[in-house]
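Hi V.,

You were right to ask for the full record rather than a summary. Here it is.
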Amino acid sequence: MVGKDNLKTEDLNLCFEKLMMFGGSGIGKGGAKMEAGAITEWKDIPMELLLQIVSLVDDQTVIVVSGVCRGWRDAICLGLTHLSLSWCNKNMNDLVLSLAPKFTKLQSLILRQDKPQLEDNAVEAIANCCHDLQVLDLSKSFKLSDCSLHALAHGCPNITKLNISGCSAFSDHALAYLAGFCRKLKVLNLCGCVKAASDIALQAIGQHCNQLQRLNLGWCESVSDVGVMSLAYGCPDLRTVDLCGCVLITDDSVIALANKCIHLRSLGLYYCQNITDRAMYSLAHSRVKNKTSIWESMKGMNDEEGLKTLNISQCTALTPPAVQAVCDSFPALHTCSGRHSLIMSGCLNLMSVHCACAFHAHRTASTIPHPAH
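Predicted structure:
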């Protein structure tokens, strides 16, 4: 008995009715062809139709259905690639231990928790059984230790997206070890991993995870310029970097990202109070070619290029001219109502900064002829 609604195998007839209700519309659309009355009870559903139906129902029902009979279990074990257990608010650890050996073809597994339930033995079971895993969410798993990261390093080397935000017990040495094996990482959320996200770990990530595109280091207070610069040099495809609350970083981190990560689209610097105008000017000029003015370079810039989101809230050392230079270089940054992508809360001295919309509005207004008096 697991999960939020305490589903039981006695409810299978009800589950069957739900399955048939959802799956009936697909019978005549390339699914299994059946004579009228061929399916008289839930055990008669062919494997092909079962897999089609299972893709339409919730994960709780899938788990119940996998216990109907051997044929159904085998079909689901072979066909199920995505599973979320975030709805399970108790006994998640036992549930994972029982499901991991069954669902060996999983590519995406979401184990986000409101309260910590997972333990190392569950993650070890995942690593031992689910070798095709690419997406794993373990956020808020406060009970996990370095043993979990070591297991994932050996059992799931194909992970591309890993969320361990709030896993405060992991060490930086374990994270560095993981980076050495999981070299296909593209998305990594380390928000709140105060022990794991250190310069040592970031140097390992920069060395091994060259495909990384999105990284969240929010509130990892031990991160310094050494770690961020290692990332910038080792992960040139970085597009989203959240450094909010990384109080030790200085302009050198931003300059490295601006110069080395030409695909950078989003940068979070909330409460990074050591950031000065020097960092802003490096961003502003990062895409300007030699001997070419800012406005000339912007004419040929693709809409998909350049910064689209910048959070400089509480960066109180910044001045309006430097931030305005960033706005002028990247028209996708907006300060106007309803389109705030340049976030400056807590910086009253930046109230005079305006995005390209204000410039175009002023230009349009000035071209409208005044009525004759």
